[in-house]
Amino acid sequence: MKAFLLERYGKQRPLRAAETPVPELRDDEVLVEVHAASVNLLDAKIRDGEFKLILPYRLPTALGHDVAGVVVKTGPRARQFKAGDEVYARVDDFRIGTFAEFVPVKEASLAPKPRNLTMEEAASIPLVGLTAWQALFGKAGLKRGQKVFIQAGSGGVGTFAIQLAKHLGATVATTTSAGNTALVKGLGADIAVDYKTQDFEQVLRDFDVVLNSQDGKTLEKSLNVLKRGGKLISISGPPDPDFGAEIAAPGFVRLVMRLLSWGIRRRSQRREVRYAFLFMKASGPQLREITKLIEAGAIRPVIDRVFPFDATNEALAYVESGRAKGKVVIKIK
Hints:
Number of domains: 2
Number of helices: 11
Organism: Pelomonas parva
Order of helices and strands: EEEHEEEEEHHEHEHEHEHEHHEHEHE
Shape: globular
GO molecular function, one term: oxidoreductase activity
CATH class of the largest domain: Alpha Beta
CATH architecture of the largest domain: Alpha-Beta Complex
Strand content: 25-35%
Protein name: NADP-dependent oxidoreductase
InterPro entries: ADH-like_N, ER, GroES-like_sf, NAD(P)-bd_dom_sf, YIM1/Zinc_Alcohol_DH_Fams
Largest sheet: 7 strands, mixed
CATH superfamily of the largest domain: Medium-chain alcohol dehydrogenases, catalytic domain
Helix content: 25-40%
Keywords: Oxidoreductase
């Protein structure tokens, strides 16, 4: 099969197109013929070596975390799906590789594809959808009537999280450029802060939840928009000790995480708010819940561009540029 491989870690190092064997299927996995895969900033960060400590991949390996496609084979312990089923998933860490013609997916991480979406639309959903779900439901416990600030509203996570928060009955604020104000308001944002001309720290007050996806400076400023008892959830770091325990990281790695997050955890405690880092996990059951919302029309995919398979490196570069509105997808079949 054809795949795009990461051979060595390196900043903006291109992936190499290669012919590789179809990966071996484990007993609890399903082999999926990949029709579409979306590109995430996580792919670029893994390529650059930013996650070597917590995700030590054995190279070469294919990149890609999101998949939509058709089941072609099932392992002996995988009984929920059969050949011909249309499915989608965020594949598990250490089994990534959706920038390829076939990918094995743990059955527990797989869900039927939403009936009202194309393969390209379905591939755009899993990672950002599960990130928003686990941040707003799991970490934040967001409730109707609360106020949530979702940064970078026109990005992949932002476009999904705004819709989910609005569905939950929250008041939603976000940052975006003036040119994308109509987009984020159309998704449900009540307040759109133009990050080029306004400082969100001066505009927003007494929020219950902040979903941070930006740099350290933005993370620090986010503390000032939260009310006492509020929750600061970051998907861009720094990782905290709870995350180290969650992934059973070695002692040295846990110490690094403790040191990296010490400053923001201390400042959070002083302001009487809670800081938590989220690195989302694959989950078929949660994806099935997301599917219900999509099929009910409560959430829609937002796709900026679809690239052909041969242009995988160009798609990755476009995501890194930060210009995408919503998701970037690779059409493989």
